[in-house]
C-alpha cells in the first residue's frame, strides 16, 4: 500500500492530479493536504470525495508541528508537493505570504519527510512541482532547458526558485530522494479567475473590460492542465531520483493573439455577433517587471519518459470555455466576496 501525500490538491492543478491518482491507483491511499486558501476549493473534487482511497486533510504546511503529527499518524511513503501561492500579481501586492507558504512551507515539508524517512530512504520520494518562471525571461529566441541558470524576476518566481534550491539542498545534504518538474502556463477547467484565461472568460460573460497588460506582446507557452497532471504521473512513476524535468506544450502564444482566439471562441459558443467580445479589449498599465517570454524545451520528458501533450490548443480552449459556460455557479461562488476586493485593488487604477 503506497500512501501518497499530495499538497495543494484543492487548487487548480492539484485537483486534476488528485482525480488522476485516485482513479488510476485504486491500491494507493491518496491524502490531500490543503489549507483551503482563496484558491482552494473542495467543489473541484466533488466527484472523487467519496472514493475509499481518498482522504482530505485541512491544514497549513507552514505549521511544522502539525506536519510532524500528520506524518506520525499516516506514515506517508511519498509526497507530491503542489501547495503554493501561485499568482504573480498577488506576489507583487503581498510578497510575504509567498515566502511563508512557498519557502517556509516547502522547507517544513522537506524537513519532516527527511526526519521520518532518513533511516530508510528506499521506495520514498519527495516530488516538488515547480514552474518555468524560475528561469527568468527569454527574448524572442531560445528555450528553457533543465540546466538553464535560475534568474527569477518576480516575488512569486523568486519564492519558487528558493523552494527548488532547498529541495536540491535536501538531496545533496541529507540524501533525500527528490525529483523536480518545472512546467509552463497551465489552462483548463477549475482555474481560479485571477489568471488570464478564466479572468477574461468571466469578464466576457459579465461584459466587463478585458485588461490587457502593456501591449499584449508577452509570450507564454500554454499546456492543458490534464496533460500536466499526466506528466506528473509519468515523472512520479518513472522519473529518475535527483532529476529535473521541464514540462511544456511547445505551444507559444503572444497574449493578444491568444486573447483574440478566446474572444472568438466565447462569442461563437454563446451566439454573440462576430467581434462582440473584442470590443471589450482595454490596454492597461503593464505588470511591474513583466517577463517577456517563457518557452519550455520539453524534449527530455518526451524522449526519456515517453510523455507528450495530448490536446491541440484550439481543442483545449474550446473544452475550457465549455467548462466555464457549464459551471457558472462555480464561477459565481468564487467571484463573490474577497475576489471583488482583490479585483478592485489589482485593476482599479490601471487605466
Ligand atoms: P492554485 O493557486 O490554484 O492552488 C494552490 C493550492 O495550494 C490551493 O488549493 C491552496 O488552498 C493551497 N495552499 C496554499 N497555501 C497553502 C498552505 N500554506 N498550506 C496548505 N495548502 C495551501 O495553484 P495552481 O495553479 O494549481 O499551482 C499548483 C502548483 O503548480 C504550484 O506550486 C505552482 O507554483 C505550480 N505551477 C503552476 C502553474 C500554472 O500555470 N498554474 C504552472 C507551473 C507550475
Ligand atoms: O509559467 C508558469 C506560471 O504561469 C505559473 O508558475 C503561475 O503559477 C501561473 O500563474 C502563470 O503565471 P503568468 O504570470 O504567466 O500567468 P497569468 O495568467 O497571470 O498571466 C498570463 C499573461 O497574461 C501574462 O503575460 C500577464 C498577462 N495578463 C494577465 C492578467 C491576469 C494580462 O495581460 N492581463 C491580466 O489581467
Predict the CATH topology of one domain.
Answer: Rossmann fold
Low-confidence stretches: none
How many strand segments?
A: 12
* General shape: globular
Under the CATH scheme, which class of one domain? Alpha Beta
Spatial order of the strands forming the largest sheet: 3-2-1-4-5-6-10
Name the average pLDDT.
97
Question: What is the succession of H and E elements?
Answer: EHEEHEHHEHEEHEEHEEHEHHHH
Instruction: Please give the radius of gyration in angstroms.
Output: 20 Å
Strand content: 15-25%
Helix content: 40-55%
Report the bound ligands by name, code or SMILES.
nicotinamide-adenine-dinucleotide, 2'deoxy-thymidine-5'-diphospho-alpha-D-glucose
**Largest sheet descriptor:** 7 strands, parallel
The secondary-structure class comes to: alpha/beta
Number of helices, where a helix is a run of at least 4 consecutive DSSP H or I residues: 12
The H-level CATH homologous superfamily of one domain, spelled out, is: NAD(P)-binding Rossmann-like Domain
At CATH level 2, the architecture of one domain is 3-Layer(aba) Sandwich
Notable characteristics:
alpha/beta; binds 2'deoxy-thymidine-5'-diphospho-alpha-D-glucose; Rossmann fold; 351 residues; 43% helix; binds nicotinamide-adenine-dinucleotide
Provide structural commentary.
It is a single chain. The chain is an alpha/beta fold and 351 residues long. The chain has a domain at 2-187 and 221-247: 3-Layer(aba) Sandwich (Rossmann fold). Helix content is 43%, strand content 17%. The protein has helices at 12-24, 64-74, 88-93, 95-117, 155-174, 196-205, 225-238, 255-270, 299-305, 313-326, 328-334, 338-347, and strands at 2-7, 28-34, 54-58, 78-81, 125-131, 178-183, 185-187, 210-213, 219-224, 244-247, 252-254, 281-284. The chain has a seven-stranded parallel β-sheet, with helices on both faces. Residues 7-8, 10-14, 34-37, 39-40, 60-62, 82-86, 101, 105, 129, 131, 160, 183, 185-186, 192 line the site of nicotinamide-adenine-dinucleotide.
Amino acid at each position: 500500500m503506497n500512501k501518497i501525500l499530495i499538497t495543494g490538491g484543492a487548487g487548480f492543478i492539484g485537483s486534476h492530479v488528485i482525480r488522476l491518482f485516485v482513479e488510476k491507483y485504486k491500491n494507493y491511499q491518496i491524502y490531500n493536504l490543503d489549507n483551503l486558501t482563496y484558491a482552494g476549493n473542495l467543489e473541484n473534487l466533488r466527484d472523487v470525495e467519496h472514493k475509499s482511497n481518498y482522504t482530505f486533510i485541512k491544514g497549513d504546511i507552514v505549521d511544522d508541528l502539525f506536519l510532524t503529527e500528520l506524518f506520525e499518524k499516516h506514515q506517508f511513503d511519498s509526497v507530491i508537493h503542489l501547495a503554493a501561492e501561485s499568482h504573480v500579481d498577488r506576489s507583487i501586492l503581498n510578497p510575504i505570504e509567498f515566502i511563508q507558504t512557498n519557502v517556509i512551507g516547502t522547507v517544513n515539508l522537506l524537513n519532516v519527510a527527511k526526519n521520518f524517512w532518513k533511516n530508510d530512504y528506499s521506495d520514498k520520494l519527495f516530488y516538488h512541482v515547480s514552474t518555468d518562471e524560475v528561469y527568468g525571461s527569454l527574448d524572442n529566441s531560445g528555450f528553457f532547458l533543465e540546466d538553464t541558470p535560475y534568474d527569477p524576476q518576480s516575488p512569486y518566481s523568486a519564492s519558487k526558485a528558493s523552494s527548488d534550491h532547498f529541495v536540491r539542498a535536501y538531496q545533496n545534504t541529507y540524501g533525500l530522494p527528490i525529483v523536480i518538474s518545472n512546467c509552463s502556463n497551465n489552462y483548463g477547467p477549475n482555474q481560479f479567475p485571477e489568471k488570464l484565461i478564466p479572468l477574461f472568460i468571466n469578464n466576457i460573460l459579465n461584459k466587463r473590460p478585458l485588461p490587457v497588460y502593456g501591449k499584449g506582446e508577452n509570450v507564454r507557452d500554454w499546456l492543458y492542465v490534464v496533460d500536466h497532471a499526466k506528466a506528473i504521473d509519468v515523472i512520479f512513476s518513472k522519473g529518475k531520483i535527483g532529476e529535473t524535468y521541464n514540462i511544456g506544450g511547445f505551444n507559444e502564444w503572444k497574449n493578444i493573439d491568444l486573447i483574440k482566439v478566446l474572444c472568438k471562441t466565447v462569442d461563437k459558443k454563446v451566439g454573440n455577433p462576430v467581434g462582440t467580445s473584442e470590443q471589450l479589449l482595454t490596454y492597461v498599465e503593464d505588470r511591474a517587471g513583466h517577463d517577456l517570454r517563457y518557452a519550455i524545451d520539453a524534449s527530455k520528458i518526451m524522449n526519456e519518459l515517453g510523455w507528450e501533450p495530448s490536446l491541440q490548443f484550439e481543442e483545449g480552449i474550446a473544452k475550457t470555455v465549455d467548462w466555464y459556460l457549464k459551471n457558472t455557479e462555480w464561477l459565481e461562488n468564487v467571484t463573490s466576496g474577497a475576489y471583488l476586493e482583490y479585483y478592485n485593488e489589482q485593476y482599479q487604477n490601471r487605466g
